[in-house]
Amino acid sequence: MLYTALDMLKETNKVNYQIITDYYFSSEKYSYGRLAIKYGVCKQTIYNRIQRSILYLRRTIIELSKNNTNGE
Q1: Using one digit for the tens of pLDDT, what is the confidence trace for 16-70?
Q2: According to the model, what pLDDT value does residue 37 have?
Q3: The CATH number of the domain where 59 resides is what?
Q4: How many angstroms separate the CA atoms of 32 and 3, rounded?
């Protein structure tokens, strides 16, 4: 379900998707500071985007699991 939620995030907000993949899934370890430089925003904006994306992913996974259990 995580991969489905990530695909949905990518469709909804490509920049937030890139930030999430850079921060959590990249082979390089990115800090908020490095991400801020890469995307041309301040560290607080990176933090906020990551937090909003996590909430989006959490809500999406919950909805997907509800729909999955209702269909069974």
Answers
A1: 999 999 999 999 999 999 999 999 999 999 999 999 999 999 999 999 999 888 7
A2: 97
A3: 1.10.10
A4: 23
Kindly state whether residue 72 falls inside one of the protein's structural domains: no
36-53 as b/e, with b when 16 or more CB fall inside 10 Å? beeeeeeeeebeebbeeb
Output the 3-class SS for the chain: CHHHHHHHHHHHCHHHHHHHHHHHHCCCCCCHHHHHHHHCCCHHHHHHHHHHHHHHHHHHHHHHHHHHHHCC
CA distance 69 to 55: 21
Q: How many domains does the chain have?
A: 1
Confirm whether 51 is domain-assigned.
yes
Q: Which pLDDT belongs to residue 72?
A: 54
